[in-house]
Amino acid sequence: MSIAEQIVRIKRELPQGVELLAISKYQPVDAIKEAYDAGQRMFGENHIQEMAAKAAILPKDIEWHFTGHVQTNKIKYMAPFVSLIHAVDSFRLLREIDKHAARNNRTIDCLLQIHIAQEETKYGLTKDECRQLLANEPWRELQHVRIVGLMAMGSNTDDTVQIRSEFHQIKQLFDELKECYFSDTPTFCQISEGMTDDYPIAIAEGSTIVRIGSMIFGERQTT
Ligand SMILES: *Cc1c(COP(=O)(O)O)cnc(C)c1O
Hints:
This protein is 40% helix and 18% strand. The protein is an alpha/beta fold. It is globular and about 50 Å long. Pyridoxal-5'-phosphate is lined by residues 23, 25, 46, 67, 195-197, 211-215.
């Protein structure tokens, strides 16, 4: 199936309220253009300079999402245009993003990344660390970042019971935080989870943004 056919097919399958983020990391500009011509407008990248280079030459109505690990010294390259930063996992990082957003006269939407999968990784907050961040840090004082939800990666496993349980825990945490901190904030409404291999489970468990790469573009040259 071509890139355009995949875009159309996946979009047709998604229930209302779930958006498709096409993960275009390592994909050439021509491939992104084909998805764009098929109607796709939200693209996700994992490297800030690669995203900035693509944004500079592709149509201006693309919404660029940053889904990779954020290096503080590179925030400046995406602050002028990024529409959602998915993987924020510390107050320090929120504060840095706020600083660069202010310089660009913008408010940048962010998701808190929750580490829920079985694999060891240094990225992402545990559920308790996330609770502590919201309870103890002065995030409400940051005028130029807006926390709009949570992001997670499921375990890399065929065990669908495990994956479902992880996404279920994210939804429970989301509901808890919504009630404690964001009950008057309708913009806190996003759960970014689900990739090529597990997005149907993610949707069933409450995902609002699925991040799909290889199913659309085929295998990547690098990962
Ligand atoms: C690469 C990547 C994806 C897409 O993965 P596929 O399995 O190719 O769909 C989604 N989210 C993040 C954070 C990624 O790094």
